[in-house]
Design brief:
The complex is a heterodimer. Chain A is mainly β. Chain A has one helix and seven strands, in the order βββαββββ. In chain A, strand 5 and strand 6 form a beta hairpin. The longest helix of chain B has 18 residues. The chains are: A mainly beta, B alpha+beta. Chain B: Pfam families: FAD_oxidored, Fer2_4, GCV_T, GCV_T_C, SO_alpha_A3.
């Protein structure tokens, strides 16, 4: 599999590390007023453990540790490995969007 | 020459090279007189280059350009091996990679290589090959007795017979079966050759260099695309090397030479011969194996034996050709029965005539080419048996005896065919004398590469074969591989596919005209099975037509079951010859169509790939890259013993003359530090520069404790959790400036922690203005410890530097000037519990720093110490490390629960509060002392209460870190023990069934040495 890193260009799978589903968002432990969220533990339980087993397009986190150390959000078909989009994570360098690699 | 019921053998045509030894250009020591079946002219061999070789010790001669198989054919050798199960005598069946029979052991000693196909082994001078799976000799193999019992050795025999007692499988049945049935033996020695791995990139990958592949490569190359043309053979040409005919009005050999010249002149075409593309992977990546030096006895110095390629191609044109299918009839495995296309290859390419009276058995037009080729080369055709009953229009003029019907028996000896029996539609039989029976059951497109991504081949009735289904993205199949067998179609399709692929890659040049060839018709009427005796489907695994039918009767109808029950297609040829015949027989038995019966799943590798090639240079000490500390060479010169920690090599201890074991060295190093001063290279710790206005907030969210309130010029120990609430990593972080922290991780977690930090920064909190830089490799860092540390540093630092307790307090950090003016970072932190500093200098000064520390501390007896002494001192101080930060412990388990801030969120905060992670009976860190002080403790020993029977119910924990404490004079340990903090003073058992040890030990505080911490603050 080859992933088109927005910073480095198309690179081979071995340069990347897979994390998993990009959908879960880290919950807030404290409310906006600073009070502790009573249900924080339940929210974090879902965030840490509950994942969908997607057959088809999935947005995933990948880390380009063998390259620019950017975290990427990759849209990949889990049944064909076709990569449809690669975005840099919001905090990864300048934000830019690339098309999927030509041969993905 | 065509009236053919005469006895063969006594009428050798003049065309045979009966006395080549008379050729004066040959070295006198080599005679080519053995080549009884060599044609005197033609072929692509070099008669001026005779090559001596041996087969089972017998000396023979071939020519440059031969394969081992063609040289054996030229020498009249028919018997080359024994089959896997029945030990039946077998001959050379094919002339290519699909060969199931002619497998030999090649080379000797550590280079001995079993199961090498003689048909793809290029002949070299001195080649030594041995036949396999026979004893005492190939002609007289005692295990051939298996064949007599073949009625009971049917499909599934092993499963039925050796069912029980089950325990005998591993000990008795399987070893015995493996000894009796098997192929060649590996050398058992380490492979002395080396292998390498490489990448290549191109616009268009063309797989195969037959007419389709050459046309594709030329079209794409002329258009200007970057082309790789991969060919499994040593020569370009594919079937063109073995066939007669014309392209663009020229004989194929002439056209081929021209095509090769043009390809060589195009700089954008890279030709890779001896390179088999064996797999297709995601993203247009192709696996290929280049047999760089398989055609020489020993690879030249510094050259690999084989090279594994990963080829990344935007488009691939697969022109992998087709493989001729055997016919399934009684006696079809006797040496002397050969594929019709192979007979043509041996005649046209290698100038070796497989028989003196060649008979042909075919169900299709293409087989007839063989009769033509035999006659053209001056050989005799005994008869053509066409199951369809009539000669095709095109071959009506051929003066050969035509018989309608089937071959129903093959008579002969262990190493030859003498005659065949032909049965016509009315059941009448007649005997034909022949010494070589060529057979053609049609052609199977080589669909493998199209099917590796689960593309299912599609049955085509018109060619009676499976054609490629849906190909992986970016790939097209052309020519014979796509089921279009005529030369004209191959050239046309190849050219068009090459042109299209080049255009799709943006090439703008002109592809020129497609070459023109003969548009001959391929007509076939399937003949799947001739009844009347043992007819083989899978030659290597001895699967017969009746085995397939038996499998069906016993319920193994699915193709995947058929394969596993009968072992059809599981031999080293992976069913290249046998699968379709097996499927057709199953279809016949079940009444389904062949298309509905389907094929088994195709999986790479298509061609055998040596494990050595997959490993490349990543073996032994080069299995992975090594990281060396900045003082590595200095330590090595001092005779340090190194330990592998992850990718690092770290000095474990520094033995000196007279020390008898590691314990003596380590004890000396510990005492030297505790009583004087020592130093240790700690550069392997992960180091991260954290900069930016939000650096403090960022660290607050990472660690359980707070860093935003850390004063500039101070260091603090920090603990990180995973989001699930368990401990992740620890280390000291210093604040060098308002917006600049210097964070350290453990050695083991340096890489993962950096990834984690980047995740937090880029994904979780992109709003924070903070930047991370890994500086692990930029700094050489040494821990200097012991009561004389300050004295040593005074010799090292500029006299203006105040190193007193007031001027440089415990946990203080600052940049200092060294004598001579160099700047260094000094951190007053201690892992050993002694008065200690860490000093950091740019990594390139690491070795010089080690030497300077030796000089500065010479008057105090400074002692370099290794990781072992470092470990002893941290256990004596009760500091946790890897064995305690083991992914199952919480901050509180480690005695660090008080560090968990209640005022802020941090990674792992919410989940750390879970019931099970805060339960009062958790196993927590304690110290352990043996009651009998002479006892040695062992890590991994279980803690159980006194008087309790050992078992999972009574298990209360285990020893995590043990050492001999020089300060206490006996062994001590850290352990994780249930409710351990309440149990200091209790006597329990350290039970170690693995080593058969059981002893009383005392639970203590984990801090064995200087519990008040006065020494490190002094």
């Amino acid at each position: 599999m080859r992933i088109a890193c927005p910073f480095c260009g198309e690179r081979e799978l071995g340069e990347f590390t897979y994390l998993g589903d990009a959908a879960p968002k880290r919950p807030m432990a404290f409310a906006a007023d600073g009070a502790e969220q009573p249900e924080a533990q339940d929210l974090f339980f879902d965030y840490v453990y509950l994942r969908d087993n997607v057959a088809g397009d999935m947005t995933e986190r990948w880390y380009h540790g063998g390259g620019c150390r950017s975290w990427l959000t990759v849209t990949r078909n889990t049944t064909t490995h076709e990569i449809k989009a690669v975005h840099a994570a919001p905090g990864a360098g300048a934000q830019k969007r690339t098309k999927a690699g030509a041969t993905s | 020459m065509s009236r053919t019921s005469q006895i063969s053998g006594d009428a050798a045509p003049l065309a045979f090279n009966d006395n080549p030894a008379a050729d004066s250009r040959q070295p006198r020591s080599i005679s080519t007189g053995t080549q009884s079946h060599r044609l005197s002219s033609g072929g692509q061999i070099d008669r001026k280059q005779p090559l001596g070789f041996t087969f089972d010790g017998k000396k023979m001669v071939g020519f440059a350009g031969d394969t081992l198989a063609s040289a054996l054919v030229a020498n009249g050798i028919k018997l080359v091996g024994r089959s896997f199960k029945y030990h039946r005598p077998r001959g050379i069946l094919t002339a290519g990679a699909e060969e199931p029979n002619a497998l030999v052991e090649l080379r000797g000693g550590a280079r001995r290589e079993p199961n090498t196909r003689a048909t793809t082994t290029e002949l070299y001078d001195g080649l030594a090959a041995e036949s396999q799976n026979r004893w005492p000799s190939l002609r007289h193999d005692v295990m051939a007795v298996n064949s007599l019992f073949s009625p009971i050795f049917v499909a599934g025999f092993y499963y039925k017979t050796f069912m029980w007692p089950a325990k005998l499988w591993e000990k008795l049945y399987e070893p015995a079966i493996r000894r009796a049935a098997g192929l060649g033996k590996a050398s058992g020695a380490a492979d002395p050759d080396h292998y390498e791995k490489a990448w290549a990139h191109c616009d268009v990958l063309v797989v195969g260099s037959g007419p389709s592949g050459l046309a594709a490569a030329l079209a794409a190359g002329r258009a200007g695309a970057r082309v790789i043309l991969a060919e499994e053979d040593s020569r370009l040409g594919g079937r063109l090397l073995s066939e007669n005919g014309e392209i663009d009005g020229k004989p194929v050999a002439e056209w081929l030479a021209g095509a090769q010249r043009e390809i060589a002149a195009l700089a954008n075409i890279r030709v890779m011969t001896r390179t088999a593309v064996f797999g297709v992977y995601d993203g247009g990546t192709y696996g290929a194996i280049e047999r760089v030096n398989d055609h020489v006895p020993v690879p030249p110095a510094h050259q690999p034996r084989q090279r594994l390629w990963r080829i990344v191609a935007k488009h691939a044109v697969v022109a992998a050709g087709a493989i001729e299918r055997p016919l399934v009839f009684p006696g079809n495995d006797r040496p002397g029965v050969m594929m019709a296309s192979a007979v043509r290859s041996y005649i046209n390419r290698f100038a070796a005539m497989p028989g003196r009276q060649v008979a042909l058995f075919t169900n299709n037009d293409d087989g007839w080419r063989t009769a033509e080729a035999v006659q053209r080369a001056g050989g005799a055709v005994a008869a053509v048996i066409d199951s369809r009953g009539a000669a095709p229009e095109r071959y009506r003029g051929l003066s050969a005896k035509l018989l309608g019907g089937v071959v129903s028996a093959v008579n002969g000896g262990v190493d030859c065919v003498r005659s065949i029996v032909v049965r016509d539609a009315g059941g009448r039989t007649q005997q034909i004398e022949t010494d070589c029976l060529a057979m053609s059951g049609g052609w199977n497109p080589n669909v493998a590469l199209s099917s590796f991504h689960r593309g299912r081949p599609v049955w085509r009735d018109d060619i009676a074969a499976f054609a490629p289904g849906q190909c992986p993205p970016g790939m097209v199949m052309v020519g014979a591989a796509s089921g279009d067998f005529s030369l004209a179609a191959c050239l046309r399709e190849g050219h068009a596919a090459g042109e299209d692929a080049a255009k799709a890659c943006g090439a703008k040049g002109k592809a020129g005209e497609a070459p023109k060839g003969d548009d001959e018709v391929f007509a076939i009427k399937p003949l799947w099975h001739v009844e009347g005796g043992k007819a083989f489907v899978d030659f290597q695994h001895d699967v017969t037509a009746s085995d397939v039918k038996l499998a069906q009767r016993e319920g193994f109808e699915s193709v995947e079951h058929l394969k596993r029950y009968t072992t059809l297609g599981m031999a080293t040829d992976q069913g290249k010859l046998s699968n379709v015949n097996g499927l057709a027989l199953m279809a016949e038995a079940t009444g389904r169509s062949i298309g509905d019966t389907g094929t088994t799943i195709y999986r790479p590798p298509y061609a055998p790939v040596a494990i050595g090639a997959l490993a490349g240079h990543h073996r032994d000490e080069n299995f992975h890259a090594w990281r060396l500390t900045p003082s590595h060479h200095w330590a090595a010169e001092r005779g340090a013993v190194f330990v592998d920690t992850g990718l690092w090599k770290r000095a474990q201890w520094y033995p000196i003359d007279g020390e008898k074991d590691w314990l003596e060295s380590v004890t000396r190093e510990v005492l030297a530090v505790r009583n004087g001063v020592g130093f240790c290279d700690v550069s392997t710790l992960g180091k991260v520069d954290v900069r930016g206005p939000d650096a403090g907030i960022f660290l607050d969210r990472l660690y359980i404790n707070t860093f935003s309130n850390l004063a500039v010029g101070k260091a603090r120990y920090g603990l990180m959790l995973r989001e699930d609430g368990l401990v992740y990593d620890d280390g000291t972080t210093s604040r060098l400036a308002e917006d600049h922290y210097f964070l350290t991780t453990t050695t083991a977690k340096a890489g993962p922690a950096m990834q984690h930090l980047e995740y937090c920064r880029q994904v979780l909190w992109p709003e924070l203005d903070v930047q991370l830089t890994s500086v692990t490799d930029q700094w050489a860092q040494f821990s200097i410890a012991g009561p004389n540390t300050r004295d040593l540093l005074k010799n090292l630092c500029d006299p203006s530097e105040d190193l007193s307790n007031e001027g440089f307090p415990f946990m203080g950090v600052r940049e200092v000037s060294l004598r001579g003016g160099m700047r260094a970072r000094l951190y007053r932190i201690s892992f050993s519990g002694e008065m200690a500093f860490e000093i950091g200098v740019p990594a390139r000064y690491g070795e010089a720093m080690a030497e300077n520390l030796m000089r500065a501390g010479a008057e105090f007896g400074v002692t370099p110490y290794g990781t072992e002494a470092l470990g002893v001192m941290r256990i004596e101080k009760g500091h946790v490390a890897g064995p305690e930060l083991n992914g199952t412990t919480t901050a509180d388990d480690l005695g660090l629960g008080k560090m968990m801030s209640k005022k802020k969120d941090y990674i792992g905060r919410a989940m750390a509060g879970r019931e099970a992670l805060t339960a009062p009976d958790r196993q927590v860190v304690v110290g352990i002392k043996p009651v009998n002080k002479t006892n040695r403790l062992r890590s991994g020993a279980h803690i159980i209460p006194k008087g309790a029977a050992p078992g999972p119910e009574t298990d209360q924990g285990y020893l995590t870190s043990v050492c001999y404490s020089p300060m206490l004079g006996h062994w001590i340990a850290l352990a994780l023990v249930e409710r351990g903090r309440e149990r200091h003073g209790e006597i329990v058992r350290a039970y170690d069934p693995l080593r058969g040890e059981d002893m009383d030990v005392e639970i203590t505080s984990p801090v064995f040495y200087d519990p008040e911490g006065g020494r490190q603050r002094g």
